[in-house]
């Protein structure tokens, strides 16, 4: 079936099988491999992207369900070579190690801060509960999110 | 960020370069933060095929027949390969760290006559896409005759059935310490003996990126290229070379980004062998990416073991002797040979304490479950058995657990100290990290808060764990690491080490060290790692060895290169060699900084105008060097202190504070050190409280998704507070390993904190994980008056 999605401001039009998940559409058809698959059960959040500005686990959504919508992946977050403040904050706070969960974690953070611009530490921890990281122990991620929100941890 | 640093030996500098010792931003981050990293599933090759496995649904069964015609008929399917297709091509199958002569458990790439655990690979399907391959896998019909399975390793020795026919009684191997009679004599006369049986459940490394590889065979050139998710690219090449009988230099292994390994990716396993064996039979590259269910079912278990632990004390609480009788589950196909790490549990059991007599017996026992694999501190059970028993002893002896440890911990004036099981400890600070962590907690204040809380029926507890761990192994394949440093014709610097990014920040570490060693700006240094075609051989990211071994390799190599720089600069500047100093990307005359020459100019001469070089000086500006470890291991020590509140109604444990004081020597990058500590600690917390790889009594795995296998999330984990004690170790820079310790120290600290919280109920904790249901059960038993 034909699916047309605006991904990172570009129209991506592909003929895909109906069972194609959004994450497969992004990785295999748009060749945007920054979005990762970590679990297949919507548990880990590595595949998190923004659909119309809201975080979605792209392994839970069919590409067809995103037809006609706007999707932002990690590749589309920086503007004109300038990292998004959340990306900058992740670097400054050593909030990533192996980097496999990072795309999903960063996009979940962008969505979280959109919803709660001045979160408490508890807000951040609960807000990122659906994104698993096995390297950092989360502490630096929480610090990075608070710092990106302009709060001194 | 709560951090406190103590330098105990003021005369020894901490990592005192311009960059070493600083919280330098990571060079890996630019690509990883923008989705530009290259993990194995991001690799695509022209005409690439995709593989998946048909796996056993039985814990033990005989394969009677396999029908593949229907699967082969699916459009897009290229091959359905069985044991008879792949296994006969195996030439040699040993891992470098173990060697060819150890009596290993057999590891057929695909199961041939018998399947030995649920998830055992039986057939390899190769197709145009993963979807087609999985559709075809459904159509492979395997006729099994189910057999009695040895599910419980603890009963496997007396089972009539052997997991492997070559291992009757299922004991893969055992080792023992000094004669038990001498130690038992001390127990027989000691004022107090404390004895307990501890059991640890199976849990697993669970890297966020599962295993996977892409293998491409070029028949025309006889070359094999492998893109791997691995911690050990050079070992993958060596192993593949032996497996297929291909010359090592015809194989190239490339890893740019690996999404965590934690031990699971330190050795080639059976699925990877299958891909290597299949590649020569197929027209294009083949990719296999493990899915999460496979990872939890077939990539390996760790930590499953039990022991009877004993400590003997005098009336003052001085430990007189220690003994451990230990057995661990190694599953059906342990990788690597597990007997050595089983023995390490026993050898390390006395820990960083003055214990004059100690012994152990350690056994590795097979079962029809997934094989044991390495996991961050594979001997970690030593600290569970010792530290939890010490707290039990403190309660029995009526001595405060902090005081009991202070009386027995190794002091600096005991060093070097030969442990009763044969290790020689030096350059360590067990008492200092312990005191530091206890001070950071403010122990006395916590005890007051605890008493006040108990008066309100709230149950707070504190637990500690102090351990010593071998890092940076200095023997065999681990004993050397190389580096090549090139100042390129423009003056920019490239450093080549085996390395490869698997989360340990080794790219940043190397760039920091080289910038300091040559005196250049860190932005002028790049590093190339993980590609066996261009990097020096190295044993990979394991054994907490990367920082200390690579620091040695960089030091050796930079020293040669500095001499060359000075030689050329002296000639150009008409100055004496001994009058030159290096810094700021140039060589200059000491005291006359204006008289100098940039590395760019030196490199121009060295490469583009060699006739301007001093007579006898070779052209070019690069050096290769190799460091050989100075000692059999580098000891690192740490203390973990944890406080918690336990809800005595629901059994829920909430961690309140978590303090780690460690001594990994001078830190190259404190942010990286703390990141390693935090990550390891949270894995240990996960193991103690949440994670459990569960099998039912028939040997069926029941936790094969991340819905069932509970990893810690941001919502549960505490803030980690760091206290650093910096005592230089024996190698270059004095750096010691720090990658594994967090996972070793956390479980006992958490268990002890929970046990302390529940002490008013008379609960003794010996088993994990401390799930709410287990705690409620313990409390119910205690209230009924049953001891456990």
Overview of the structural elements:
Chain A folds into two domains: 2-76, Ubiquitin-like (UB roll), CATH 3.10.20.30; 85-148, Orthogonal Bundle (DNA polymerase, domain 1). Helices cover 31% and strands 15% of the residues of chain A. Chain A is globular and about 50 Å long. The relative contact order of chain A is 0.16. The mean pLDDT of chain A is 97. Chain A has five helices and five strands. Chain A has helices spanning 22-29, 85-92, 102-115, 121-127, 139-148, and strands at 2-7, 10-15, 48-51, 54-57, 70-72. Chain A is of the alpha+beta class. Chain A has a five-stranded mixed beta sheet, sandwiched between helices. With 788 residues, chain B is of the alpha+beta class. Helix content of chain B is 28%, strand content 25%. Chain B is built from 19 helices and 29 strands. In chain B, the strands form seven sheets. In chain B, strands 4-6-2-13-10-11-12 form a seven-stranded mixed beta sheet, with helices on both faces. Mean pLDDT of chain B is 96; it is low at 10-14. At the A-B interface, helix 2, helix 3, helix 4 and helix 5 of A face helix 1 and helix 17 of B.
Secondary-structure blueprint of this entry?
The complex is a heterodimer of chains A (153) and B (788).
Chain A: E1 2-7, E2 10-15, H1 22-29, E3 48-51, E4 54-57, E5 70-72, H2 85-92, H3 102-115, H4 121-127, H5 139-148
Helix pairs in contact in A: 2-5
Chain B: E1 3-7, H1 29-32, E2 49-55, E3 61-67, H2 69-72, E4 77-82, H3 83-86, E5 114-115, E6 121-127, H4 130-137, E7 141-146, E8 171-176, H5 180-189, E9 192-200, E10 212-218, E11 223-228, H6 233-244, E12 251-254, H7 270-279, E13 286-289, H8 292-298, E14 305-313, E15 319-331, H9 339-348, E16 357-366, H10 381-397, H11 401-408, E17 417-418, E18 424-425, H12 430-441, H13 443-455, E19 459-471, E20 480-487, E21 493-497, H14 506-518, E22 525-529, H15 546-573, E23 580-583, E24 586-589, E25 592-598, H16 599-608, E26 622-628, E27 634-646, E28 653-663, H17 670-689, E29 720-726, H18 741-757, H19 772-784
Parallel strand pairs in B: 1-29, 2-13, 11-12, 15-16, 21-22, 28-29
Antiparallel strand pairs in B: 2-6, 3-5, 3-7, 4-6, 8-16, 9-14, 10-11, 10-13, 14-15, 17-18, 19-27, 20-21, 20-26, 23-24, 24-25, 27-28
Helix pairs in contact in B: 10-18, 14-15, 17-18
